Amino acid sequence: MAFDGCTSIKVPDTARNRSWLGKMKAALRVTGYPAAELMTLVETGTRALLGAVFGPPATGETDYARQLLHLLGPDMLVLTDRGFDAGPFLADVAATRAQFLVRLTAARRLPVMARLDDGSFLSKIGELPVRIIEAHVTVTCADGSRASSSRNAFASCSARSARCADRRGVRRARGLPQPGTGS
Questions:
Q1: Which of 44, 100, 105, 156 has its CA 20 to 30 A from that of 123?
Q2: Whose CA is closest to 157, among 135, 125, 129, 118?
Q3: How far is Cα 118 from Cα 134, in angstroms, rounded to an integer?
Q4: Residue 46 class from Cβ within 10 Å (0-12 exposed, 13-18 middle, 19+ buried)?
Q5: Sheet containing strand 77-80, strands side by side
Q6: pLDDT in tens, 57-87
Q7: 90 burial class (0-12, 13-18, 19+ CB within 10 angstroms)?
């Protein structure tokens, strides 16, 4: 599953549309046409649309995404981009018991509660326990130039995988041998 939003849907510049959508702010005051924001929840493998909501862009992506949370369940993995890494929103997603993987904003600095053997670490966003995974991505462009970035992502520890808060639980959940025991 993935949340995805779009704010570039232009609608006719009528008094009725301006009254509920307004106009987006731009460098030279406002845009020429009112725009609607669309938020969708899609199944990423089949691209099936599970739900969609829309309205004024001023409302914000996470507020629209919250209206789609009732469609999530404990057997789902939700992917989101860095615009969705707000603590209260993630707590709402976790309350659905869905797992999630979220790209974090570059400015977010989280405390390291425990380091794991695979290089990830346990942390918290607000009161929500999370596992932080750092991924280094290098892209080679058509002209041969390379772009590199580092991004942090995390997955929640739901009630069914609460053991992930300790190293032995993480290793056991993955079927890996326990350090020092050979089993």
A1: 44
A2: 129
A3: 10
A4: exposed
A5: 49-55, 35-42, 2-10, 77-80, 99-103, 146-156, 128-140, 121-125, 114-115
A6: 888 899 999 999 999 999 999 998 888 888 8
A7: buried
Q: Which two tokens stand for residue 124?
A: 């918290």
Other CB atoms within 10 Å distance of the CB of residue 65: 24
Contact 77, 1 (CB under 8 A): yes
Supply the pTM of this predicted model: 0.73
**Are residues 169 and 81 both part of a single domain?**
yes
Where b means 16+ CB within 10 Å and e means fewer, 138-166 reads eeeeeeeeeeeeeebbbbbbbeeeeebee
Tell me, what's the pLDDT at 40? 95
Chain centroid, CA 146 distance in Å: 26
The mean pLDDT value of the chain amounts to 80
Residue after which a domain boundary falls, among 18, 48, 71: 71
Tally of CA atoms within 13 A in the half-sphere of 59 that contains its CB = 21
CA R_g for the chain:
20
